[in-house]
Amino acid sequence: MKYIQPIEITDAELVDSNVLEDDYAVYDPGTPYSTGARVISLVTHTVYESSGDGNQGNDPDDRANNAVLWTVVSATNRWKVFDKKLADQTTNAGSITYEITPGKIVNAIAFFNVEASSINVRITDPTDGEIYNETYSLSDNSGVTDWYTYFFTPTEKVAEVVAFDLPSYSTQTIFITLSVPAGDVSVGEIVLGAQKTIGGAVFGSGIGIVDYSRKERDDFGNAVIVERGYSQTSSYDVSIETKNVRHIQRQLGRLRAKPLVWSGTDDGGYGLLIYGYFTDFDIQLSGPLFSDCSIEVEGLT
């Protein structure tokens, strides 16, 4: 059972990307904007929409004074992968690339809501040169269980990938490439950070979803369904060393309101890979050597 505590990606860490930041025109204080007009800020990397006509000279980044005049739509396309919203995808034709210099130790990386054929992660160090180069295929063969399913099961793609084997350097440059043979590539979130092991997840852990769609009946009994987003959930049963109980309690207490990447396995298998926050945890002092811990996690949408 591991988690990744994400690092914040800002202009200082993001060196380059092939995703252009040109969703809309950059905000111009001399332009009068009408209702519904959209602009972007290259300072906060945000898309704003004007809430009224004749909207001129009101900087949308000045939220204290101009929040009523501008509505936040989303992060810009380039920065959606770092906005902590899995449903908002960064999209680009052919490939998506990022060059990042974290400036601190990063030894794990995770990708969520991915629509691509492969992901390559390459890491270089100023002294040691190339220290990591791995390509991950996103083909999912878990539905193939016999000859019939081999021939007739539609090809599926993995939507989440995690790697816990990145070398622990603080001076590295990380090159990320998501690719497809043709068409668009999309990814909801890229998370980099340092990993921490809590214990060993055991069978009895569970997975599920929370659906935010609206499902009602009208006066005539007809179903009225409004499809909305959903979040993944996991209930982790973890065996931890009793001597570490107090440390883990303090550790989780400090992270109680922070989104983390949680994984019950070393490869994110069994659907136990979630980017979200824990809603509850409980530790039972079961014995002098090992104790039982349960952690409830709800994913971001």
User: Proportion of β residues?
Assistant: over 45%
Rg over CA atoms: 22 Å
Largest sheet: 10 strands, antiparallel
CATH superfamily label of the largest domain: Galactose-binding domain-like
CATH topology of the largest domain: Jelly Rolls
Proportion of residues in helical segments? under 10%
Model description:
The chain has 3 helices and 22 strands. It is mainly beta and 301 residues long. The longest helix has 10 residues, at 245-254. It folds into 3 domains: 7-17 and 82-196, Galactose-binding domain-like (Jelly Rolls, Sandwich), CATH 2.60.120.260; 22-75, Seminal Fluid Protein  PDC-109 (Domain B); 200-299, no CATH class. It is globular.
List its salient traits.
301 residues, mainly beta, Jelly Rolls, Seminal Fluid Protein  PDC-109 (Domain B), 3 domains, 10-stranded antiparallel beta sheet, 3 helices, globular
Summarize the model shown.
With 301 residues, this protein is mainly beta.
Secondary structure layout:
Layout: E1 2-6, E2 14-17, E3 38-41, E4 46-50, H1 63-66, E5 70-75, E6 90-100, E7 108-112, E8 118-125, E9 129-137, E10 139-140, H2 147-152, E11 156-157, E12 161-163, E13 173-187, E14 189-197, E15 200-201, E16 206-211, E17 214-217, E18 223-226, E19 230-241, H3 245-254, E20 260-263, E21 273-284, E22 290-299
Antiparallel strand pairs: 1-14, 1-20, 2-6, 3-4, 4-5, 6-13, 7-12, 7-14, 8-9, 8-13, 10-11, 15-19, 16-19, 17-18, 19-22, 20-21, 21-22
